[in-house]
Specification:
With 536 residues, this protein is α+β, with helices and mostly antiparallel strands. The protein has twelve helices and 13 strands. It starts with a helix and ends in a 15-residue tail after the last strand.
């Protein structure tokens, strides 16, 4: 996933998270606020189903009062039953109302928990004020008034009469808190019973402050969670990989190329691609440094070997020249032998210099190849004539077999390919330890390649040295080193064969001989329709 998509998903997730948290927080805080203001019977949903919570509270309280009045008239014994009073108190509690029962000068039930004694004292004080205010009214007048006016009509002192022996008072209390009290008095067999329905008004300002503080805390927690989540996301997705890249770059600056930048395989965004590209660059740099060190080491070895190889013929030439100058060669025969030796060593020196120059040019791609399409039969037949003559001069024989069809062709540089064959054959001649050596050369074809094999019956090469014989300046053993030469012959062969798109390798068995193989691409007419370019 690309970074821009990650950012979009992060923003969408953040908005969804904010909406969910605010919705849940509003429900929780709103429910708490409504419960504190209007009781447990209200929730956020109830705001959309009723017009006014206060009116709804009064309506429900009126229903509860009607039920209490009815029970006092029909079954007053219920108010001596604690279970009934508990259920009544629980029902009234949904509207922040508590039930208290006062019988014969004593509170027998109290459904409120906080500041009970202060509330009971305030109720008794308020009750005394109302009752004392009605002492001058005869009971018969009250009964007549109630019977004439009907239940529920207001009498003196703001009371409401119900039934034959009941009255209801409604008044406010300010101590210990703000309460609305509905007092229901009734006479049962000469005993007075009072039911107090006390509704807590509470402190609206305090409740609003609590709700506001709760909302602020909720928003603070939301911002804290979001900030932490976004910071973690930014650090994990962006900052940490960049810090690792910076540290890796510093390590590369100090020359340490062995520490990769850790990156998850599943990360497909720009940062992941950058880290992988950086690791690829580090690996290429590491390989380049190793190749450079190897190349420098080979150069030092090459210079050392070339210095030694050049010194040997020069020393010989100097020795023979000094012999001529000092008169050691005092006869025409000796002089002629000395001159021939000087001439041979000069030729040897010239060959070493030419071989070194050739290798340098090949390595630097300074030799322009001239590729031509040639017949395998005709080209190798001509080469074998020269090889056969050279072998005869060294008392060696050649066995040549070409198994390719007459029409098989290859695109090669004839001169450079001939150099490959001559170098391999020259090596075979140089390292043959028999009086009469023998070389087998065979050419076979496959679907797309031809394979040339050159086998000699010389001393062979040990297993440890065989993989290195195509390295420049490498000579397998002391016997081979004593043979002279720059050690570049097979390295040149390898370079030329690879430039032709083929490969070269060798097999050998100690004491039995060595076989060197190389391949060349066949010319296929279908792949080269423009025959005018085949010689380019």
């Amino acid at each position: 996933m690309k970074i821009i998509k990650k950012v979009k998903w992060a923003l969408v997730s953040v908005w969804i998270f904010i909406v969910l948290i605010m919705l849940v927080g509003t429900i929780v805080i709103g429910r708490s606020y409504l419960s504190e203001m209007f009781g447990d019977g209200y929730s956020i949903q109830s705001l959309y189903s009723i017009s006014d919570p206060i009116k709804e509270t009064y309506r429900n309280l009126s229903i509860i009062m009607s039920e209490v009045q009815e029970d006092l008239q029909t079954d007053p014994g219920k108010f001596y039953d604690k279970k009934y009073l508990d259920s009544l108190n629980q029902k009234a509690g949904n509207y922040r109302t508590s039930v208290l029962v006062y019988i014969d000068g004593e509170f027998t039930y109290s459904g409120i928990k906080d500041e009970v004694e202060k509330l009971e004292a305030s109720l008794l004080t308020k009750r005394a004020i109302y009752i004392n205010g009605e002492k001058g009214i005869k009971q018969e007048e009250v009964e007549n008034s109630s019977s004439e006016s009907g239940s529920g009509e207001m009498g003196d002192q703001g009371s409401y009469a119900f039934g034959k022996y009941g009255k209801t008072y409604e008044y406010m209390l300010t101590s210990p808190q703000a309460y609305l009290c509905n007092e229901i008095d009734y006479q049962i067999n000469g005993k007075s019973i009072s039911i107090f329905l006390v509704t807590y008004y509470g402190n609206y300002v305090s409740q609003f402050k609590s709700a506001l503080v709760g909302f602020i805390l909720m928003m603070f927690l939301i911002m804290l969670v979001l900030t932490t989540a976004l910071s973690t996301l930014v650090y994990v997705q962006f900052i940490r990989p960049l810090v690792r890249l910076k540290e890796a770059a510093e390590e590369i600056g100090t020359g340490n190329l062995g520490e990769p930048v850790e990156v998850s395989d599943g990360r497909k965004d720009e940062i992941g691609e950058l880290c992988r590209s950086f690791n690829d660059m580090r690996e290429r740099l590491n390989e380049s440094v190793e190749l450079k060190m190897q190349y420098e080491e080979e150069n030092r070895e090459l210079i050392s070997n070339i210095s030694h190889d050049l010194k040997t013929p020069i020393t010989t030439i100097k020795g023979y020249v000094e012999g001529l100058m000092d008169g050691v060669a005092d006869t025409p025969e000796k002089q002629d032998r000395y001159l021939k030796m000087i001439y041979n060593k000069a030729n040897e020196l010239d060959a070493l210099i030419n071989e070194l120059s050739l290798y340098t040019n090949i390595t630097n791609n300074a030799i322009p190849y001239e590729f031509h399409r040639v017949s395998v039969k005709d080209y190798f037949n001509d080469c074998m004539e020269e090889v056969r003559a050279d072998l005869l001069s060294h008392n060696m024989t050649l066995n040549y077999n070409n198994y390719c069809a007459e029409d098989v062709k290859v695109v090669v540089d004839p001169d450079q390919l001939k150099r490959v064959i001559n170098n391999i054959v020259t090596n075979a001649i140089k390292y043959t330890d028999k009086e009469e050596g023998h070389i087998d050369i065979s050419i076979e074809e496959s679907e797309k390649m031809i394979k040339v094999s050159i086998n000699d019956d010389g001393r062979g090469i040990d297993k440890e040295s065989l993989p290195h014989i195509f390295d420049r300046t490498y000579r397998a053993d002391s016997a081979r080193r004593s043979r002279g030469g720059s050690g570049l012959g097979l390295a040149i062969c390898k370079k030329i064969v690879e430039e032709h798109g083929g490969k070269i390798w060798a097999t050998s068995k100690k004491g039995e001989g060595t076989t060197i193989y190389f391949t060349l691409k066949k010319y296929i007419k279908e792949e080269n329709k423009d025959e005018q370019n085949t010689d380019n």
